[in-house]
Amino acid sequence: MSSRGLTRENLLETLPVALRLDRSVVALADAMAGILSQRPEEIDRLRIYPDVFRLDEKLLDILAYDFKVDWWDSEYSLEEKRRVLRDNWNVHRTLGTKYAVETVLGDIFPGAWVEEWFEYGGSPYCFRLFLPVQDGVSEDRQRRVLSRIWYYKNLRSHLEGISLEGEVSGTNHTGAYVTAAHTVEVWPELPVSVELAEAGNNQIGVAAVAAQTVEIWPALAEQAELAVGAGSDGFVSVQQTVELYPEERMDA
User: What is the mean pLDDT of the chain?
Assistant: First the structure.
């Protein structure tokens, strides 16, 4: 059949030359070709291998029964069912091997692997499983998966242990205690005024302390102005002090 598509003409081209001389066969082939050419969408669904990841869940359940996937579970997610059906034929060819066990478990727990007894010094003909559980795994789910393991492992081997491996990632913000001080001394001149301004943005996770001290000698200033700004995620302490010597002391 040519690449022009699923048409009556293309289907008839597949009829063997020897049969084209038989009118009855040609008539039957023509009738079948007419019917098939009108149902391309249904025919397209028969392409299981190349399109397994586009098959719907209902069809997957039917195919699993037809292909005797004994370890099938109707509670699997759609993506898990697609992976199990995709690997079904390879598992059937290798039943009873380490590869079969790792393949089936890997379809449900991606990254799962098997360690045999001689690899870790265990009891003869035993093995251990290592299952990644990034998204968590319930007791019921683990039980259902492992209850079917005898379908694809060999009869002499026994499961000796299971290790569940998970990983947690996140960002940890840690702060500290910071003290900042600013001192200005004016003496022995005779200033009319003193202005001191400071603005800051302290992004500290735990605590921040800011202090300013102004000393004016010999206390002949008519005014003193201070301004300070600070921001923090935690505790903030801001202190402003103006000291006028030797007459008086003012805390602002």
Answer: 75
